Amino acid sequence: EVSDENEKFNLMTPIDLEKNKICLVTQLSQFSNLRIIDFKGKSVIDDCHVSFELQISEKIGSVCGYKGGILIGVDNSILFYKKNQNDGYYRILSRTTEIGTGIASIIANNDFIFVGDRQLSVLILEYVESFQNFRIIGQEPALRRVLSLFPYKSSVVGGDIEGNIFTFDDLSKIISDLSSSFSMFKGNRRLP
């Protein structure tokens, strides 16, 4: 239920593979409200509850599920929240800043995170558990103003502000080329 008539729907996305959890983000003035809604049964209306609620004083650009938690893209930062096994509450594990210039889209592909940036195209990150932080391990060299990314089969599909659609078709090759050093990778333009 929307609590204020000025509250605007921003995005909704499933955050687990079974699609029994969704994340709903709304924008109110200068604040973003994020809610994780769990669905337990077949009847959506009767058997759902809000398992996590968060208000952030910035605009949320993107969210996605990752390793049983949730990644939240805010400006040029990624927040990583995960449910504590002892008390069942979500806690922040990491806030990684200086990820590009403005995060428009985040998707997880196993251990790797693809981040669509509003100015710098697509970045690949990995989570370094010992530091509880993300690090950039790859970047597409073509500058694109990315609007969205979407996983499709074994590839990633994206769109930019100029109306281009691009893909990263051979993710296994891209990922195998990413060693401990920074790597560049190339997307394929699909539509003008």
Structure report:
The chain is mostly beta strands. Helices cover 4% and strands 58% of the residues. It contains 1 helix and 17 strands. The protein has a 5-stranded mixed beta sheet with strand order 9-10-11-12-16, with no helix packed on it.
Keyphrases for this structure?
single chain, 192 residues, mainly beta, 5-stranded mixed sheet, 4-stranded antiparallel sheet, 17 strands, 4% helix
* Beta-strand share of residues: over 45%
Mean pLDDT across every amino acid position: 81
Shape: globular
Strand order in the sheet with the most strands: 9-10-11-12-16
Could you estimate the helical fraction of the residues in percent?
under 10%
Radius of gyration: 17 Å
Query: What's the helix count?
Result: 1
From the N-terminal CA to the C-terminal CA, the straight-line distance is 41 Å
Unreliably modeled segments: none
> Structural class of the secondary elements?
mainly beta
Most strands sheet: 5 strands, mixed
How would you name the oligomeric state of the polypeptide chains in this document?
A: single chain
Total beta-strand segments: 17
H-E order: EEEEEEEEEEEEEEEHEE
